[in-house]
Amino acid sequence: MPRYLVAIHHPDDYDPAVSEDEAMHRAIDALNDEMIAAGIRLFVGGLHRAGTAKSLRADADGNVSVSDGPHLKTREHVGGLWVLEADGMDEALAWGRKAAIACRAPVEVRAFH
């Protein structure tokens, strides 16, 4: 069965203490329970703010440098994700719609190779 990434996007300055409330947590917990009951959830995880990331780059000689912060310089970053096993993109999108509502944030759905 195909696997899909359902990624939640947060703005650079996202602060869970300010942006998340108990109702949102209950909605996400309910969505997780629904995914488990449907047998489609393989993995779920939330990420720390993008500013806490470390970026690694290899040069032509194989030396790897490490720098602070995300690799991509954007205004939004992945804040959390699910890996789902679904019958197809339409089913994955249906779960993505539920995620967008529960998380109150933009969601990206992508198939794995």
Automatic annotation (TrEMBL):
Ranges for domain YCII-related: 9-99
One Pfam family hit: YCII
SUPFAM superfamilies assigned to the protein according to its UniProt record, in alphabetical order: Dimeric alpha+beta barrel
Family annotation (InterPro entries): Dimeric_a/b-barrel, YCII
Domain of life: Bacteria
Transmembrane annotation, as ranges: none
Family: Belongs to the YciI family.
Entry-linked PANTHER family: BLL7171 PROTEIN-RELATED
Protein name per UniProt: YCII-related domain-containing protein
Lineage: Bacteria, Pseudomonadati, Pseudomonadota, Alphaproteobacteria, Hyphomicrobiales
